[in-house]
Structure formats: structure tokens, C-alpha cells
Amino acid sequence: MEDIYYSSTRGSETKVSASEAILKGISEDGGLFIPNEIPKLKCTIEEISKLDYKETAYTVMSSFLTDFAEEELKNCIEKAYDAKFDTEEIAPIKKTDDAYFLELYHGPTLAFKDMALSILPHLLKTSARKHNIKDKIVILTATSGDTGKAALEGFADVEDTEIIVFFPEDGVSEVQRLQMVTQKGSNTHVVGIEGNFDDAQSGVKKIFTDKEFGDKLKENGYRFSSANSINIGRLVPQIVYYFYAYGSLCKKKEIECGEKVNFVVPTGNFGNILAAYFAKNMGLPVNKLICASNDNKVLFDFFKTGVYDRDREFVTTISPSMDILISSNLERLIYLVSGRTPKKVSQLMSELSVNGKYQITSEMSDKLQDFYGGYATEEETKRAISKMYNENDYLIDTHTAVAYSVYEKYKDEKNDSTKTVIASTASPYKFTNAVMEAVDDKYLNCNSFELMKKMSALMNSDIPAGIRGIEEREILHKNTCKKDEMKNIVEKFLNL
Ligand SMILES: *Cc1c(COP(=O)(O)O)cnc(C)c1O
Among residues 40, 42, 84, 113, which one is catalytic? Predict the structure, then answer.
């Protein structure tokens, strides 16, 4: 098997091994690590459809993480996809009238972030061991709501790590906030920032690439890594479930093996849908990748015009995990469609940071035919929840509803009858108020926790263990800071 190496999308680092890329999180030049080629799937689609989740994970991930020994990777996979998930299937599929919902929220924190963040700590520890690293690893994370909790859960009390999470104080749901601020673990730190997700993410990236600060950390026996989807160790595990979903549909004879399907992905930072694009390039039979945005529709505009323009009002929506104007992972797609030209990427990213926008060339736009961009307004999102509930007796969360709504528009517009899988990214329990209000006006202005019980009755299912009784847990994290104080608070936490 060929070794896969990683290089920065902006060119300064090349030939970095997978374990080094995972340890670093982001390249020194601010670029993201990307494999020197997208490997082809090692087996046939028929073969992969016979595998369970862990076997699929090994088959897919071992093609990317070529410097991990078989035993090392299998060990990480065993520890990640275990009873933390409330179903042995790990990622079950629900069939409705007109689509398949790939439920990626059966992990401990009830969002798809668990799919990668339950394995990332093990990948990181293994990588540190391989390189004989003695430094304590500090995981610095910006979250739009779900990554934070999933990372805290994954790294809590993991020896030789500290985890610091920044979340937008007014930009997450009540359940999301409580999940984070009640987190136990002596190495966990949670900070609400006065700003939005983009502020948190930019702040974190700035700390990462601050050379002087990096040196200071080193002197104190620390090094940074990232749990955000800028880390290749997040992206690679996310490719797995696209194969698994496809395999499940083959197994259930819902599709012919080899038949193309569409995937609809509710998108924020462009990590999840980029993983689907990687799966397609590995050989998964995919027709369209449908990129669904909420009112922060930068990506919709980008796919339509070739112009990425973040210079617009940031909108707070009922799908907060997608309230993002700077989709970091798009940089990897830009790199690929530029024909792997770091100079072009650097130029565009510098335009983005200076002018707030950039335009790709028409040759680059031509290479985006795999994608269809759509968006759903708040009203459309609520309508999608209520329609799905009324017609299928099935509750979907607000993010998944954005995807469902965009899918309906896509079908009308394109008359495409290709079977379609919707990435269902969070449990409706995480967004209780918005979901219940969409089902029926009588739930307007109710208490979140009362509604949780009502939702449980409606769905005829127990409140998931991760959030049962969350309103009674002790608040353990009360820190807040301004967006320009992030570095100071990191120094405080680490006693620098
Ligand atoms: C993070 C998140 C998204 C967006 O995923 P990206 O990889 O950032 O595009 C969508 N839905 C939910 C529930 C999320 O937590």
C-alpha cells in the first residue's frame, strides 16, 4: 500500500505523516493539512456492504492513516465505537416517504460530532506515543455548540491533555450550553465568549499560528492541537459513515449495489460535506452532494456565483451549529479544484481576510459540478419539521430540517429521482424548544425541560441519557471573556 502524506493547503509544509498532521491540527502557515492523494477504496462496494461499522471504519481510515500500524488503528476504533453509542449499528438509517435519514446522533452528546470526536483522542494519544512526545497536549477548540461538548466528553480526564473550549455565549441552545458548562473532568475548561462562532474560530486559529506563544508553550511543556474539523483526525473518521450508509442500503436491498445516491448535508464549517466529497472520490457511487445552509447562506451564494463573501450580517438562527460565515474546510476544496496550487489558495485566503471576499476562476467553478447549494429560511425549516412529523411521525432536529427542506426544493427544481440520504446531524432533544414549537404553537414559550418530557411522550422514547436531568446538574464553568482576551485566558488556565 502507498504511504499517504499530508501537506498544507498554503504550501509551507509538505510530506507530513498522518500522525504528525493529527498532532499539529493546523499547519504553521495557517493552512489545513490535506492528503497528497485521495486513496481509492481498498475493496469493492459489495464487500464493504458486508462490514459492520468498526470494520468499515478500519477499511476506510487505514487508507488515510498509513503510518498507523494495524493494531494501533484497530485499538482506537474499538475504544471509540462502543457502548458510548446507544445502538450497536452506531449510525442507523431511518426510511421515510421520500428519503433516508442517516442518524449520526447516537453518541454520548447527541450530535454527529461524536462520530469523529469519540475516536480523535485515541488517534492523538497514539500519534503522541509514536513520536515519543512528552509534552502535555492542549486541545484548543472553538464551537458553534456541538463540537465543544463532544470534544469535552472525548478528552475529559484523558491523561496528559488539557481541553479548552470557546463557545459563543449567546449563540447556542439552552441544552447545548448546559451540556458544556456542567462538564466534569479536572482537565476541562469552558469559556463563553462575547462574540459569534467566527470570532471564536478566528481567535483560536490566531493563537495556533502565534509563533511566540507557541515557543512559550513549549518551554512550559505544552503543545497545542485542535479538535475542530480543521484537524484531519476529525475529517477522516467522518468519511466512514458515508460508506456505511451506502452499505446499509445495499444490505437492505433499498438500492442496487453500484447505484448512485445523493447525500444532503446540513453545512456550517464544510467539514461533514467535505468528508462526503472524499468518499465520492474514493469511489463511493454518489450523484450529487447537496450542501444545505440556513440563513447564513454564504455557501449557497458561493456555489451559485463563484464568489465567497463573508461580508454580510451574521444571522442567529434555530440551527445554531450552522451559524457560520467562514467555512474553514472550504479551503481544502479550493485547494483541490485549484489543481493543488498552494499559491492560489494563499492568495484567495489572504483576500478573504483582508477584503472579506474572494472569487474563484471559472476553471475552478467548473470542477464544482458534484455540488448543489441550497438554503432554507427559518420558516421553511420549521415547516420541514412539522411536515416530517405529520407525515411520517418522525421528529428531526432543526439542522436536519434545513437539509430536508433544501432537499425538497432540489427535487422540485431538478426533477431528480435519485435515492437520497440526508445526514441527520443532531437529536431533536438538543433543540427541544425550536423543534416542539415547529410541531405545534401550543409549545411556544415553554420551559425547555418540560418540553423534553413532552417530546419523550410524543416520540414514545426515553430522554437520552446524556441530557436526562441536565437542568439539575451543577454548573462547573462560569468563565466568560471578550474575543480579544482569548489568549490571556488560555495563559491563565495553563499557568503560563
Ligand atoms: C457541526 C454541525 C453541523 C455543521 O457541520 P460542518 O461539518 O461544520 O459543516 C450541522 N449540524 C449540526 C447539528 C452540527 O453540530
Answer: 113
